[in-house]
Amino acid sequence: MKRFIATLMIVALTGCTSATQFGPCVGAFDEKKPDLEYKVSGWNLAMALIFFELVAPPIQVVVDETFCPVGKK
């Protein structure tokens, strides 16, 4: 059972988008670069909601990968 849970956590975290061509994604409480436009990553939030029972993936997404840069201002 522990291996199954560990496998699910790895799948959840690797399924998240961590960077785009404009730079790395930032967390909900991180500073954003003023010259980039950011958008909430729907895929990352969907992965967090799917794996909400595992605790670690949703925390990882909120802390590190909530907003992804989509272009320059």
Highlighted features:
73 residues; alpha+beta; two-stranded antiparallel ribbon
Fold and architecture overview:
There is one protein chain. This protein is of the alpha+beta class and about 70 residues long. It has one domain. The chain is built from three helices and four strands, in the order αβββααβ. It has helices at about 1-15, 40-50, 55-65; strands at about 20, 25, 35-40, 65-70. The strands form two sheets. A two-stranded antiparallel sheet has the order 1-2. A two-stranded antiparallel sheet has the order 3-4. Helix 2 (about 40-50) packs antiparallel against helix 3 (about 55-65). The protein is elongated. The N and C termini lie far apart (about 45 Å).
Q: Count of helical segments?
A: 3
Percentage of residues assigned to helices: 40-55%
Order of helices and strands: HEEEHHE
Q: Could you give the distance between the termini?
A: 47 Å
Task: Please describe the topology of this protein.
Elements: H1 2-14, E1 19-20, E2 23-24, E3 36-40, H2 42-50, H3 56-64, E4 67-72
Antiparallel strand pairs: 1-2, 3-4
